[in-house]
Amino acid sequence: MGTTGQLSAVPEPKYWHLRTVLLRAIDTEFSTGQVLPNERELSARFGVARATLRQALDQLELEGRLVRRRGIGTLVAAPRVGVPVSRNEEGWPGAPGGQAWRTVDCTTAPASAQLAQALGILVGATVHTVRRTRQVQGRSMGTESLHVPAASLPHLPGFRAEGDRARSVLRQLERLEVDGESRSVELGVAEAEEAALLERPPGSPVLVVTTQYAAAGRLVALAVSTYRADTCKLTFGEAGLVEVAPVAEGAAVRTAS
């Protein structure tokens, strides 16, 4: 690494300033997959304690810029993978183009107060929920809970097995004429169950995409998708309309296509 010199006094935390310095070095001196010098060398180069260095490295790993491999060291991570989330690119749930999704399970239960409000239905009304994972380049990049009120699928046939239930819900959903959809995106953290499906520790940063699907002028499905924030970036397509709207804590990006 060519740049030398110790860190100057800054008002921000020392590890955060070191993170910025390390990023500059990574972008100019290293390529994807290359191993960084060990902690002793990096600490000596930047004149910081090992604890400060580890904080900076932990932060960069959290952001998806570095990856640690046991027995190898700390490597420069590959660029984030683009994941399309517009219906034009991704397809309507259940459509033939959705092979990237793998079904985890499907349940049918009364709607809680929170879910009923989100779907615009009565508390206790029957809702089918299909849980899926999204595979990109052979890795689990996202999870999804797709909530469909039973009233949206009045002709849903009976099913004997769990897999049949999920397939039936998705198949019937595909047959609906979609009038439109709206999406919101916000930053969150993975709960234990989501983290396990994403193969990440609980509390890892994620991008939460909430999509409302409408048909015949009414809401027919609600999808809450959780994507790894460290390895993927979401793309909405050229037709997507993007609006930034303030929310209670931060801001959500809303799109419509």
Your description of this structure?
The structure is a single chain. By secondary structure, the chain is an alpha+beta fold. The chain folds into 2 domains: about 60 residues, Arc Repressor Mutant, subunit A, CATH 1.10.10; about 180 residues, Chorismate lyase (3-Layer(aba) Sandwich). Helices cover about 25% and strands about 35% of the residues. The strands form 3 sheets. An 8-stranded antiparallel beta sheet has the order 4-5-6-9-8-7-12-11. A two-stranded antiparallel sheet has the order 1-2. Strands 3-10 form a two-stranded parallel sheet. α1 crosses α3. The longest helix has 16 residues. The chain is elongated. The C terminus is likely disordered.
Summary, kept brief:
The protein has 257 residues and is an alpha+beta fold. The chain is 26% helix and 37% strand. The chain contains 7 helices and 12 strands.
Keywords:
257 residues, alpha+beta, Arc Repressor Mutant, subunit A, Chorismate lyase, 2 domains, two-stranded antiparallel sheet, 7 helices, 12 strands, 37% strand, elongated, disordered C terminus
